[in-house]
Amino acid sequence: MALKTSKIRLIQEAFRHKGFIQKLPDLFRMVKFISKGDYKPDLKGFILPGLALIYAISPIDVIPDWFPIVGQMDDLAVLALAMPALMKEVEKFLIWEDGRKNGMKTIDVEAQ
C-alpha cells in the first residue's frame, strides 16, 4: 500500500506544473473535441504525455520503485518532461478553438 501511496504523491507533485490546474477544463474540452474527431492534436503534445502518465501509474518501471528515492525519480522525471508538451498542446487547442468560434481557419507553424 505504501508503494501505491508514494506513486499517487509523485503524480500529484508532477501535476503542480505551473498553470496545470487552471487548464484542466481546457484539457477536458480538448479531449472531447479529439474524441469527436474535430481536433487533431500533435502526437508529441498529447499522446506522449498520456503514455508518460500510464508509465508513472504502472507498476512496471525502468528503475523499480523499491529502490529508495531513485525508484520514484524516474516516474517524476518522465512526468516532468511530458507536462510542458501537454501544456503547449492545450495552448494550441485554445488558439484553434478561438479561431473556430470566430470563423477563422488556423495554420500550425512550428517556431524554433
UniProtKB/TrEMBL annotation:
Top-level taxon of origin: Bacteria
Transmembrane domains' residue ranges: none
Location(s) in or outside the cell: Endomembrane system
Keyword Methyltransferase: no
Residue span, DUF1232 domain: 49-81
Keywords: Membrane, Transmembrane, Transmembrane helix
UniProt keyword Membrane, yes or no: yes
InterPro entries hit by this protein: DUF1232
Cellular component annotations (GO), alphabetically ordered: endomembrane system
Membrane protein topology class: Multi-pass membrane protein
Name the UniProt record assigns to this protein: DUF1232 domain-containing protein
Organism, as annotated: Elizabethkingia meningoseptica (Chryseobacterium meningosepticum)
